[in-house]
Amino acid sequence: MPTLTQPLALKPTTLFTLYSIIFLGSAGFFITIPAYVSLFLTDHSLAIAQNMPIEQRRTLFGTVMSAAPFISMFFTPLIARFADRFSRKVTMVLCLIIAAIGFAMPIYAIVIGSIALLFAGNMINSLGSASQPIAQAILADNSRGKTKATLMSMVAIVMTAAMSFGPALGSKLSATYGTQAPFYACLIIAIFCLILLNLVRLPPQITLHNENPLSFVAPLKRSQPGLLACLAIVFICQFSWSLYFQNIAFIFPQKWGISVESSFYQYFMMAIGVVMICSLLLLPRLILARINVLSALRITTLFAAIGMILLAITPTPNTHIAAMIFTAVMVAISFPFYITALSDRASEADQGWVMAMSSAMVGLAWTLSGYLTSVFVNIDLILPTAIAAIGYVIAMIIVPKKAATLVTAAN
Which PROSITE patterns is this protein grouped with (predicted)? Predict the structure, then answer.
């Protein structure tokens, strides 16, 4: 394991492999969204779905798309505990095999017109996505300080790219080659990652013998004070950002008469991804050259709150764009800071578990906000964005005061 002064222990080929696995964990969801829309909600729907009223089809679509994140939230921390206890590489191999099966099943389900098999494939794929936080754990376990924050920035870039461009890629594949194409694409990526993983050699990990992998008490006892606060920050920041992100689809049509099908809306959504990726590439390491992680986290969450206030009061689309750029930068660069702060408070042997817990917080935040945004909009159009501003203020307040020290399994 590297110390504060030792160089990164991961080779470029290993980094490429780990980031490919992280990309698959997000892209497997976003690339396939257009295919599920086509299969359930359009004239090209499965024969069984076509015989249902549109209301039932919408319910079925929502069930398929929301059940997978819930399964992932429940099982991923458990799978990560087994990875920490036994072998992260072996666990990732098994997860990638499961993911490949999960992508292959919908391909066959479309051929035979089986909604049950389509649903089962999505569930199985959600279990395979547990490879994503395990790959993050290997990055976190073999880096320190500014290097860790830089690697976490790259994690955010890969996940943002999947979220921003995955649906567009899936839509293009579906339109050109049919609804099976997005699943084929994800299957190929899964097989590619599996081959790469078996070709690289990962650094040795600390394993804890004779410990129950189903217990979450032991990793909590080994952690430093502030770990639960950092987990709360992950949830609050993701929940706050997702409230605004989903509020956009209501603000543009109702406030300015800009439809979600318009080119303005589409370019605006693409611009969010581009701004976030560029800021993550350029800013975190520069900031940490001057201040520590916790100070950076306090400042960025404060500025994110200010940005949300600006987004709530902007009178025109152009001023909204300006406020979005500022806010998206702050939201993006806060991610590696709070993930680094969280990682630093867990022991080296528990990095898989803590990354999986952060992944569960992200999934929970986006799942809850999807429902609550609609509820809040019925009260007031800008309420979700206003609550997001409050959320970032709360996140700033609960940032731990003391910096973490190096924690090993023996501590």
Answer: MFS
- In eight-state DSSP terms, residue 289 is T
Phi first, then psi: give them for residue 175, nearest 5 degrees.
-70, -35
Residues 368 and 239: beta-carbon distance below 8 Å: yes
pTM for this prediction: 0.84
The whole-angstrom separation of Cα 332 and Cα 156 is 8
Domain ranges in the chain with CATH number 1.20.1250.20: 12-202, 219-397
Instruction: Compute the half-sphere exposure of residue 167: CA atoms within 13 Å on the CB side of its CA.
Output: 12
The highest-level CATH class for domain 12-202 is mainly alpha
The answer to whether the CB of 368 falls within 8 A of the CB of 241 is: no
- Is the pLDDT confidence value at 7 over 70? no
d(CA 374, CA 384): 9
Architecture of domain 219-397: Up-down Bundle (1.20)
Residues in the chain: 411
What does the alpha-carbon distance between residue 190 and residue 25 come to, in Å, rounded to a whole number?
Answer: 9
